[in-house]
Write a structure and sequence with these properties.
The chain is mostly beta strands and 444 residues long. The chain has one helix at 187-190, and strands at 6-8, 39-46, 51-58, 70-73, 76-77, 79-80, 88-93, 103-110, 113-120, 127-131, 144-150, 157-164, 169-177, 182-185, 198-204, 207-211, 222-226, 229-235, 242-245, 248-256, 260-262, 268-277, 287-293, 298-301, 304-306, 311-318, 323-331, 334-343, 349-352, 359-363, 368-375, 383-393, 397-398, 406-410, 425-431, 436-443. The protein has 4 domains: 15-122 and 209-226, Immunoglobulin-like (Sandwich), CATH 2.60.40; 127-206 and 229-235, Immunoglobulin-like (Sandwich), CATH 2.60.40.10; 242-343, Immunoglobulin-like, CATH 2.60.40; 349-443, Immunoglobulin-like, CATH 2.60.40. Helix content is 1%, strand content 50%.
Length: 444
């Protein structure tokens, strides 16, 4: 049995819906919907959470009511939400077995008339921005080197953006072929960003859409897939100091590979310093010293290193006191720092009782804000129960009974979850307010 581990869980409560209206001929279908069709069908399918949602709007009041329409994905019927009306209906289907290269067939049935959307499931690359690191600091007026990678084959195209966080105003943008994995923004551009406390760097793999065919499909009816994107928040506050070395000014900046680690006595992060002169030339061959304030919360090894091409990297290891600590790098009278957050380390002991509706308890009695029970494996119907809470809930919780202050997100409409069966392995996830998750396998 696996013990408790901490990781980010993709928790699907209600998948966001993407509106997409296409263009087509006014007098025929041509794979773009029929201008005179009775229903506008807008659907979204997402590989990252194996989910499907759809909205259907009745364009002709004499047509079959929307709350009598069915929609299926590869033969599995989606659930129509109870808020649906005669003119508008919503649908959701969890746990779609999405596999690259498989044929996807979405069929809408309205009183025996159908609309169909068929396509081959495309690859779904996940981008990861490796530089600048999320939560790091950036000295405006210097060159920003943005580097990213994919977990699979690259997309057809990629969009790079830098946004000002407060007003979502775009400060910089660029579109590149999908094989591009780096881009540099000159200091002459970044100099104007010093008025913003933080910026957001985004890498977006775009979207695709496939249109419905069939006489009942109104123009623009389609299934949309939004491909994955990545976003890193970068702080532009003055955390890099300048000093004088002879007659030349220098700048030193510090980045961490992880800006938040557990105060468990063993978790670590890499601290990387970069030193350059006022002309952008990196310092080479001279020593830089690392330190931490307050003391007694981390160890740094080695504490002194020689710069190579302007860079030096050391390892910072957490002790057992939670809180923030500044990691400094100093060089002959000037320094820079980055702030490391040491999170309180709690070991949870999770117990799942016996029976078809077991009691779930944990110690210490910490407050959790989400709960997911799934049957092990990746097949349709594996999700059994999802709870969410704004205020949180405490131990114990009985499977199938919604605790005070929580809301059942699945099954929909308050339907009771399937009972825990004898034989299969199940996976329980308890989710903190920060998205960290304690996992426990169990079986009956």
């Amino acid at each position: 049995m696996r013990g408790c581990t901490r990781m980010i869980l993709f928790l699907l409560m209600v998948m966001p819906f993407a509106f997409f209206v296409g263009c087509g001929d006014d007098d025929d279908n041509n794979g773009n919907g029929n201008l005179n069709g009775d229903y506008l069908i807008l659907a979204y399918i997402g590989e990252q959470v194996d989910g499907f949602t759809a909205d259907i709007e009745r364009m002709d009041s004499t047509a079959t009511p929307c709350n009598q329409i069915t929609i299926s994905v590869n033969g599995t019927q989606a659930t129509r939400l109870p808020t649906s009306t005669a003119d508008y209906s919503d649908y959701v289907l969890l746990d779609i077995d999405y596999t690259e290269g498989t044929q996807m067939n979405i069929v809408v049935n309205a009183g025996g008339q159908t609309a169909t959307c068929s396509f081959t499931a495309p690859s779904y690359p996940w981008p990861d921005i490796t530089s600048p690191v999320d939560g790091s600091t950036f000295v405006t007026g210097s060159t920003m080197n943005i580097v990213w990678e994919y977990n699979s084959n690259p997309p057809e195209s990629v969009h790079l953006g830098v946004d000002e966080q407060a007003t979502s105003g775009e400060l910089y943008q660029g579109d590149f072929v999908g094989t591009t994995t780096s881009h540099s923004i000159p200091g002459s551009t970044t100099a104007a960003w010093n008025v913003y406390p933080s910026i957001v760097v985004t890498v977006d793999c775009g979207s695709d859409a496939w249109f419905f065919t069939g006489d009942i499909a109104f123009l623009g009816s389609c299934v949309t897939m939004l491909f994955a994107g990545a976003a890193n928040t970068i702080f532009t506050s003055d955390t890099a100091d300048t000093g004088t070395h002879g007659d030349t000014d220098y700048v030193v900046s510090v980045e961490l590979s992880d800006y938040s680690i557990s105060a468990d006595g063993s978790s670590s992060t890499n601290a990387t310093v970069y030193v350059e002169d006022e002309y952008g030339t990196p310092v080479d061959g001279e020593n830089v010293t690392f330190s931490a304030q307050p003391t007694g919360r981390v160890t740094i090894n080695p504490a002194t290193m020689a710069l190579s091409g302007g860079y030096a990297t050391t390892v910072v290891t957490a002790l057992t006191t939670p809180g923030d600590v500044n990691i400094y790098a100093s060089y002959s009278g000037f320094s820079g720092f980055a702030t490391l957050s040491l999170e309180e380390h709690i070991e949870f002991a999770i117990t799942v009782g016996a029976g078809a509706h077991p009691q779930i308890s944990w110690t210490p009695d910490s407050t959790f804000f989400g709960l997911v029970v799934r049957k092990e494996g990746v097949t349709i119907g594996n999700t059994k129960w999802i709870l969410g809470s704004v205020l949180g809930f405490s131990s114990p919780v009985t499977y199938g009974t919604v605790p005070s202050g929580a809301t059942q997100a699945f099954p929909l409409a308050g339907a009771p979850p399937d009972t825990i069966e004898i034989g299969p392995d199940y996976l329980l996830g308890l989710i903190t307010q920060y998205g960290d998750t304690a996992f426990q396998e169990f079986s009956r």
